[in-house]
Amino acid sequence: MPPHTSAVEKAEIVAMVEHAGMDFDEVARKIGQHPTTVGRPRKLTESDANFAVMEINRGGPVETTQLQCNFFPGVSVDTVRRRLKDQGLENFKQHAVLFLKKEHIKQHREWGEDLLFWTLDNWLAVIYSDASKFDVFGSDGRRRVWRKCGQALKPKNTIKKVAHGGGQVMVWGCITRWGVGHLRRIETTLTAAGYAKILSEDLLGTLRDYDINPHGIYFQCDKDKKQWTKLVATLLENHGIDSLPWPASSPDMNIIENLWDHLDHKVHSRNPPPKNRNQLWQFLQEEWEKIDQNYIAQLYESIPTRVQTLVENKGGNTGY
User: Fold this and answer.
1) In three state form, how does the secondary structure of the chain look?
2) How far apart, in whole angstroms, are the C-alpha atoms of residue 89 and residue 290?
3) Strands 126-134, 169-176: parallel, antiparallel or unpaired by DSSP?
4) pLDDT band at 18 (very low <50, low <70, confident <90, very high)
5) Of residues 264, 270, 223, the one with CA closest to residue 243
6) 311: alpha, beta or left? (left if phi > 0; alpha if psi -120 to 50)
7) Radius of gyration of the chain, Cα coordinates, nearest whole angstrom
8) I need a surface site. Which of 78, 178, 195, 257 has the fewest CB within 10 A?
């Protein structure tokens, strides 16, 4: 600011810029001065800002503090954050997606193309199932990343994870268009015989609970080589249950994965939260029975769009 700007005027200008969020042109018009009279040269030049964006785009530091520490130690983190916003970037939570091999992507694309013609009525005939692990203390994998809107699934903006993450209570469950099915705790390594027992007691039990004709449904499950044996295939065949072909490493197509996240959130939002494995299992059962049928209906309604998105993404991650 020039020497003739009074202390009061300086304070007003600072308040308008830092607290009211006005730019220098707006402030200049407000106080009746030329724009060059207001403000001071940027601590981060246009060249600096372009470098910061380039560093982010090539997979460099994603945390503002790390970017500031590595390249701009002479300015504050807030200054770096403001300049990134000036460049059109916004700070978002980093998405966690499953790492996909080339063969997975190819299988996903082919699967999506084969079932693209299915209507919602077709998908409503599918019973989804899965096993999942839950941690007594929950998990917080939140990370944030600077990116532009619409770029959530670009590889540099996502967190890679592997299938079957750690946990302390493992369960198997299934869902139908009519509501949740059986939820079963798994306390030992799940063998083929153990899996067949689950299907015999809990899948068939779910069909009985809802009076579902097994000849009119498809059963979705991940065909894990250790579990999917002739014993399991024969059990389903003997009860007239068709198995839905399912590609490996495709949790974003399985709506029960969303239900697991929903269940985990409900359990760990309880006050007080679970303190041990047995209490976690108790809470899981209680919250499972409370799951709203409308929420399940929304998940089923999303399936045609999921498949469409999968095909559009050529078998890559879909964001579901």
Assistant:
1) CCCCCCHHHHHHHHHHHHHCCCCHHHHHHHHCCCHHHCCCCCCCCHHHHHHHHHHHHCCCCCCHHHHHHHHCCCCCHHHHHHHHHHCCCEEEECEEEECCCHHHHHHHHHHHHHHCCCCHHHHCCEEEEEEEEECCCCCCCCCEEEECCCCCCCHHHEEEECCCCCCCEEEEEEEECCEEEEEEEECCCCCHHHHHHHHHHHHHHHHHHCCCCHHHCEEECCCCCCCCCHHHHHHHHHCCCEECCCCCCCHHHCHHHHHHHHHHHHHHCCCCCCCCHHHHHHHHHHHHHHCCHHHHHHHHHHHHHHHHHHHHCCCCCCCC
2) 40
3) antiparallel
4) low
5) 223
6) alpha
7) 27
8) 78
Residue-wise pLDDT tens digits, 119-137: 999 999 999 999 999 998 7
Report pLDDT digits (tens) over 96-106.
666 667 888 89
Structure tokens at 245: 């072909």
Amino acid at 160: K
| Closest by CA position to 186, among listed 275, 277, 254 | 277
Whose tokens are 């890559």? That residue is 316
Span of 147-151, 176-180, 256-260, 263-267 with lowest mean pLDDT? 147-151
* The two three-digit tokens of residue 29, written as one number: 């018009």
d(Cα 248, Cα 244) in Å, to the nearest integer?
Answer: 13
Query: Which of 42-51, 99-108, 168-177, 310-319 has maximum average pLDDT?
Result: 168-177
First to last CA, the chain: 51
Apex 141 CA angle, 136 and 146, nearest 5:
165
User: Where in the chain are the domains?
Assistant: 1-40, 46-88, 97-312
111-117: long-range contacts, CB 8 A cutoff, minimum separation 24 = 111/245, 111/246, 111/247, 111/250, 111/253, 111/310, 112/307, 112/310, 112/311, 112/315, 113/311, 114/245, 115/307, 116/307, 116/308, 116/311
Q: What's the whole-model pTM score? A: 0.66
